[in-house]
Design brief:
Number of strands: 5
Strand order of the largest sheet: 2-3-1-4-5
Structural class: alpha/beta
Mean pLDDT: 82
CATH topology: Rossmann fold
CATH superfamily: P-loop containing nucleotide triphosphate hydrolases
CATH class: Alpha Beta
CATH architecture: 3-Layer(aba) Sandwich
Helix content: 40-55%
Largest sheet: 5 strands, parallel
Low-confidence stretches: 177-197, 206-212
Order of helices and strands: EHEHHEHHEHEHHH
Length: 212
């Protein structure tokens, strides 16, 4: 049987990663495809422990996240609701520990597509897992910086609901989305700014240009 199309959905907190994963799963299953989802280990860990992990607990979480992908059976699609790279990013930003990057980056290269959810959604509190809008911007900036520096290709995804799904499908299934494909091929170029309002304005301008 052919290997599944592996897709990683990355992004800072409160950027709609899980919603996009669910939308992609529903879309492909409706077409009769077999879809495996590697759910976020960190969320499960926090729910069980009632706290966020400490520095020395980060590696086990990253390894468990990778393990879910490695244990997935045969199918048409595999979607990772985050990857070890996000654990490495948080370890770097929160604990100044960069030791997880080699493992996380090696794992990241098994995905044919890496989608990064943009900052155009409003930040919302969600228990102990979320650290605030300012931290969201720091994580987003570090993620893009690492992906670019390490040469890991990625595509930005914006919008809400069907619009965000269509943007993702424009990358994963070129020609299947009603949104212009050119929007999905846009890459982050400014390494000095990760301002959510600025990004939202840019996204709005892209939308306006596409409808002209």
């Amino acid at each position: 049987m052919a290997q599944p199309l592996n897709v990683a959905v990355l992004g800072a907190e409160c950027t709609g990663k899980s919603s996009l994963v669910t939308a992609l799963q529903t879309h492909w299953q409706a077409r009769g495809a077999t879809v495996h989802v590697a759910h976020e280990v960190l969320r499960q860990w926090c729910d069980q422990q009632g706290r966020t992990p400490l520095a020395h607990e980060q590696r086990a979480i990253a390894q468990a996240q990778a393990g879910l992908v490695e244990q997935a059976g045969d199918g048409d699609f595999l979607i990772a609701d985050t990857s070890p790279l996000m654990t490495a990013i948080y370890s770097d930003v929160l604990f100044q520990d960069s030791s997880l990057y080699p493992f996380a980056l090696k794992h990241q290269r098994i995905y044919q597509h890496t989608l990064v959810t943009g900052l155009d959604l409003p930040w919302q509190a969600d228990g102990i897992q979320r650290d605030g809008a300012a931290m969201r911007e720091r994580i987003d900036a570090r993620l893009r910086d690492v992906l670019q520096r390490e040469g890991v290709g990625f595509s930005m995804v914006y919008g809400q609901g069907k619009q965000r799904l269509a943007g993702a499908l424009a990358v994963l299934e070129p020609g299947a989305s009603t949104l212009p494909q050119a929007r999905s091929s846009w890459r982050w170029l400014c390494d000095k700014c990760s301002d959510a309002d600025c990004e939202h304005r840019l996204f709005s301008d892209l939308q306006a240009a596409a409808t002209r």
